[in-house]
Amino acid sequence: MRYPLRYAAYEWLKEKKSATDADLLEAMNKNGGKCSPGEVNKVLMQLEILGLINIRWLAKDKRRIEVIEKQEEGPRIPRMNE
To answer: What confidence score (pLDDT) does residue 12 get?
Structure first.
C-alpha cells in the first residue's frame, strides 16, 4: 500500500518548517515515487485549504511554503460571572 502523497508532503514540510515548491517536488521524487508538478500543486492546494500550510510567491515560478504552527489551547477555566 502506498503512503498518500498529501501525508508524505505534510510530514516532510513539518520537519523542514519552510521550503520552496521545487524542494518539495525533489523530496517527493527522491523517496522513490514519481510525482509531477501538477500533483504537487494539487496537494499544496489541499493542505492550504485545510489550514495546515501557507504559500507565498517568491518569484514568477517559485513559491515558499510555510507550515502553520497551531498553538495548543489549554482547558478553559470558566469565570464566576459566566
So the answer is: 92
